[in-house]
Every structure is written in C-alpha cells, then in structure tokens.
Amino acid sequence: MTAPVQPAPPPADERKPLLGVHSSVAMATLRWAFIVATSVFAFHRTLFSLIDTTRHGGMNGYVWMVAFASLLAAAGLAIHNRTELPIHDRQTDIIVAIMGLVLALLLHGVLLQRYALYFDLLRLDLVAWWLFMLSASIALFGLRPVTRFGWAWLLLLAVFPLPYHIFVLVLGGSHVAAAMGTLLVAAAGTAIAVGRHWGRGLIGALSSWVAGLTVLVLMYVFFRGASLLAYQLIPAMTAIVVAASAMFLLTRRGRPIRVLYRKIEPLAAKQVWSAVPLVLVVAVALSFVRLPDSGVPEPARIAGTNPSTSLRAPAGWHVAATRTYPWVARIHGEGGELVRQEMVADHRDPRFDKFARPRAVVVDTITTPRPASLSLFPARMPYRVNGVRISTPRQVDLGHGISGTLLTAVDDEILITWDALEWTWTNGSVAQRIVIIAVDNHDDDAPFPQPTGGIVRTLNSMFTILFRGNTAATDTNPVIKDEVLLTEFGRALADAQLEDQRTER
Fold first, then answer.
1. Which positions, given as ranges, span the membrane (predicted)?
2. For the chain, what percent of residues have pLDDT higher than 70?
C-alpha cells in the first residue's frame, strides 16, 4: 500500500498572507484616509469648481477619467511583487515632502492668480492638488514606496489639461476628438496596470484601444447626440475595465483568483507621526486660497431667445461687409462659428471724429452650442497678441442685465490702438460672445485685428498668452478713446437683437 501523495505547495505568489500583515493593511488604509481627507479639505473649492464645470458640459470633465485610470493603474502595480530594497531614510523623505508641499502652496497661492484669465485652460489648482497628494504620500509612506507607483503618479499628472486641449484642438474640437483624448489616458492606464514587462504593457494598451474605439463607433452611430461627458467617459472607462480585467483573468487562468495574491510586505515608514502635523498645517493654509476671478462677467441669461450668427445693425448703422470663419469650430466645438461684420455709421458725428467722418467698427460674433468653451478660451485667444499691450478690463452696464468689459490694446509695431467692448449672453443651450472693435485710425483702410485662423497660429497665440501671463506686457495707464462710441453702439446693438427676438415671438 503506497503512501498518499502530498500536494505540492502553492507558488510563493499564491500563499496566503500572514495574520500579522493585517495591521499593515489597516495602517496603510488609515494613512490614505488621512491624505484624501486633508487634500479634499485643502482643495474643496477646486472640487466644487470641477463639479460645476462638469455639470455645465465643460471640456475639463475628462479629469474624472484621469483619476479613474490612475486608481486602476495603481491597483495593477499593487499586485506586482515588491522589489525595492528595505532601505528607509526618514530624513530624506521629510526633506523631499517639505519641498513638494511648499511648491504646491506657491503654485496654488501665487501662480494661479497670475493666470486668472486662463484658469479653465490651465487648471493649475489641479496640478497643485496632485503635488500636495504626492508630497503627503512621501511624508507618510516614504519615498521608495511612492516611487514604486511612479507611473501611476505620472498618469495622474494628466489632470493638467493644456496638453489634452491641444490634442482635441488638433483633431478638430469635436466630441469624437475629446473621446480620442481620453482613450489615450485609458491606454496608458491599462499599460501601467498590466505591464509586468513592455510587451505585456503594449498588448494591454492596444487591447484597450480596440475596446474603446468599438464603443466609440457604436456611440457615434446609435447615440450621436450624447453629451460631451458621455463621449469622454464611456468609451475610455469601458476600454480600461474590459482590457485590464481580461488580461488579469487570463493571467490567473487555472489558478485561484484573488485580488491580491502576492505576499504583503510591512510598511517601511513607521515613524510618521512627525509628518502628520506638517501635512495638516499645509492643508489648512491651502484651504484659505480662493480660486481666481478672471474679471470677465458671467454670461447674461436671456431666456427664450434664439441667437443669430449674423447680428442686425442698430438704428443709424449699416452692415458694409460680412465674413465667416468656420475654423473656430476647432476651438468651440461642432456648430461653432465666427462671423465678422463691418458696420458703418449712416451719419456723421463730430463727437467721434474731429473731421466728422462716419465711423466704422467691426463686430466679431462667436456662436457655440458648447457655452462652457467660452470660459475655456478667452476672447483674445483667436487674435494675434505678439507685441500687443492689453489693458485691464473695465466693466460697463449695457442694460437688459448685460455686463460688458471695455479694454484697449496697443500694437507697438504698427503704432495702432484698438478699443474693444465684449460681452457674452446665452439662452442656456447656445451662447454668443460679441466683440466690438474700434481703431484710433479713422481712415477707410484702417487695420483691425484679424482672427488668426489655423492650428499653428492659434497655438502660437495660446502659448504667447500663457508665457506672458496676466501682468506681463500690460498697458498700465490705458486711455480708452472710443469708450463713449463703443458703449452707445453696444447698447444699441443689444437692443436691436432683443427687439428682433421680441418681434419673432
């Protein structure tokens, strides 16, 4: 009679963790709860702002996909076998953490205000939030464990939205282009989650692309009118969940399936109590920082109107020329359009010209079914801004609950000054930005600022504005020569459009 065969011991990566590791899991959970709680407290205004942007159909709603993909990537890295050496230096951890926390405080409290006009385009507060969480993790867990999740942290840095906006702009600015941008995030997250080596990561990325593109095609065919947020989230989230889950199940085929099947190592950083007050103090300081005010009034809500892309000239003026710029759809989404109308006064008015010549102004009207895009891209974005000094906007009441802004722009190269009045109004689903421009040269061939057009010129204007910020190259002592002309014309123009709407009803 033969002795019973003893079953072979399970592989090392399938052995059940010892009971002693439960304390490590509990401590890790407690530390993460503290980091999340302090970060939400520090950036509660940012969180509410992001929720409001998403609710109103803003392009920055893609950030939720970045957070989801980063969490899944971190979960994938967590089940990999731990390889860092058991070397720990709390002094280095604290020094690096302090540097990061101070940088987050400076970024959120100082640099954010410098780019107030481009807040939605840059969202530097999200970058500061990312830096705070990274630094707090280094303080509470140590530099080596955080480095092991370095790829997940790098993916989370995609909350900085400028590269995403440039990618969507290059692809045409449509809902499909926005979805393609989030599919890149999904592919990167899948590659990080399943990539034990580069070949496996490449397979994961390609698998997520196939799954995501399939869902995107189905949405475009059967649910073409879905919201921007649906295009941003549904294909990308489906792609990363399907691809990562499929590769995980294939890897564990024939073996017991457990979420965490490697041996759990104890936490390296044990003396963390000294870091808790540091993180808490910085979080309290960050919580007092208010999000910047761009100085641009909120769009006037004109209920029951149907904005026309071509405006009717007010009484005493006529339209001399009209031109359409369809390329603006790249910036303001499908259906976006820019119409330029040159309007000339029917009568002479010595108040506005010493020779009593009829004045001419240009009216640029941007109409978009994506109202949130108007706050994302400021009014000056479509124009050439190199070598131009722009004054601080001054608010003016145009009646009907409409608040406009007056400013002046000086071009030192051609020695021309432009005065501009702008305002935005919306009926809730369609929004218009109206910019009225007058030039201090009253001749018939006086040059007006031209919309740049094209991807390269638009990006050039974008980067020029960003590198200059709000305070550089600013006209600190502006003289708005045509303030009266623009104010009177703006009120009359608004009256004419609203009168048209009342007549149609």
1. 25-43, 63-82, 94-115, 127-143, 150-170, 176-195, 202-223, 229-251, 272-291
2. 82
Domains of the chain: 16-287 (no CATH), 300-504 (3.40.1000)
Contact in structure between 292 and 48 (CB atoms under 8 Å): no
Give residue 257's pLDDT: 54
Residue from 332, 429, 327, 337 nearest 373 by CA = 332
Residue 468: C-alpha distances to residues 97, 170, 385, 387 (Å): 30, 23, 10, 11
32, exposed or middle or buried, with CB in 10 Å at 0-12, 13-18, 19+? middle
**426, 401 in Cβ contact below 8 A?**
no
At residue 407, the 3 state secondary structure works out as strand
**Would you tell me how many other CB atoms lie within 10 Å of the CB of residue 220?**
16
For the question of whether the overall pTM of this predicted structure is more than 0.70, the answer is yes
Residue 73, CA distances (Å) to 238, 263, 360 in order? 15, 19, 58
Measure the N-to-C terminal CA separation of the chain; round to a whole number of Å.
100
Helix axes 44-55, 124-141, angle to 10 degrees: 130
- Rounded to 10 degrees, the C-alpha dihedral 385/387/389/395 comes to -10
Neighbours of 217 (CB within 10 A): 12
pLDDT surpassing 90 at residue 152: yes
Helix (H, G, I), strand (E, B), or coil: what is residue 435? strand
Cα–Cα distance for residue pair 101/97, rounded to 1 Å: 6
Give the pLDDT band of residue 144 (cuts 50, 70, 90). Answer: confident
Interval 325-352 mean pLDDT: 87
